[in-house]
Amino acid sequence: QVQLVESGGGSVQTGGSLRLVCAASGFTFSDYCMAWFRQAPGKEREAVAAIASTTTYYADSVKGRFTISRDNPKNTLYLQMNMLKAEDTSMYYCTARRLPCGGLLRYSDSNYWGQGTQVTVSS
Question: Whole-angstrom Cα distance, residue 9 to residue 4?
């Protein structure tokens, strides 16, 4: 049974940091492009970052502040978020799609999706 379980969300002040974690199971993690998306109420879903084996891709809105990484032996995906802004407030989701990435993914192109973790940034 495939599972993607996100954790690490929470409430933080502007300028703070959070690390999101996505624990994967039920598929061969290393064969998949992994990605983070986010969606705020009333807004379009946005691709945040993606990672192939080592190559990473970022949305312009998070470049220089967020870092995506993966630990294949642990079947785990991470998103380190620094210098958080109020506009980063969203539900964050991890997804998986068979390699290659070729850039940021489209949510609908993913093979598997997690349930999300909420990030709230306040001033």
Answer: 15
